[in-house]
């Protein structure tokens, strides 16, 4: 089993996981086959869909890859803040003939079941977004032979990631394509 990320990489390139549909197994396989580390996005996806993605990726490449998970968010957005903001987008909705979508996001998306899946059938790398996993989670993945990465957007977050026992910190800029791990 790999001990460091460098053991996995032919080229020092990691494909960012992108929840919402673009991070297909085909994309991850292409990155893996080119010598980088391809990633599957586990966020906004059922555990069964994630399992199917992993199976599909394994059928496309035998190279190492990663799976990304979103931490559950304990604090739902405050409707008192969200509703006026959503109402303020009425002009944009009309101009583009579109709907607002769900401003509260998917909520709980099967985090525990996905973790159980990744512990029962380990993958080379698991990364986390929107929070720091419990140290026990990172230790269990380590025992399963999985390297763990956790996104940090500030130095304070990076220290929390290190203290929790992750293999490495994903040091993310404040812009982060609009997808900060903070
Ligand atoms: C459309 C989009 C979706 C993203 N989804 C995820 C995700 O599901 N998980 C994750 O860890 N990061 C996600 N990110 C953040 C990226 O992993 C990355 O940190 C960010 O894009 C900054 O890197 P860049 O400067 O190379 O784009 C997403 C970014 C974009 C643009």
Explain this structure.
It contains seven helices and five strands. The chain has helices at 25-33, 47-60, 79-87, 90-96, 111-120, 135-143, 155-164; strands spanning 38-41, 65-70, 125-129, 147-152, 168-171. It folds into two domains: 5-72 and 108-178, TIM Barrel (Alpha-Beta Barrel); 77-107, no CATH class. The protein has a five-stranded parallel β-sheet. It has 182 residues and is an alpha/beta fold. Helix content is 37%, strand content 14%. The longest helix is centred in the N-terminal third of the chain and has 14 residues, at 47-60. Strand 3 (125-129), helix 6 (135-143) and strand 4 form a beta-alpha-beta unit. The structure holds flavin mononucleotide. Residues 16-19, 41, 43, 68, 127, 129, 151, 172, 176-177, 179 line the site of flavin mononucleotide.
Number of domains: 2
Average the pLDDT over all residues and give the rounded result: 92
Q: What fraction of the residues are assigned to beta strands by DSSP? A: 5-15%
Radius of gyration: 17 Å
CATH class of the largest domain: Alpha Beta
Give a short account of the largest sheet: 5 strands, parallel
| CATH architecture annotation of the largest domain | Alpha-Beta Barrel
CATH fold assignment of the largest domain: TIM Barrel
Q: Largest sheet, order of strands side by side?
A: 1-2-3-4-5
Judged by helices, strands and strand pairing, the structural class is alpha/beta
Give every kind of bound small molecule, once each: flavin mononucleotide
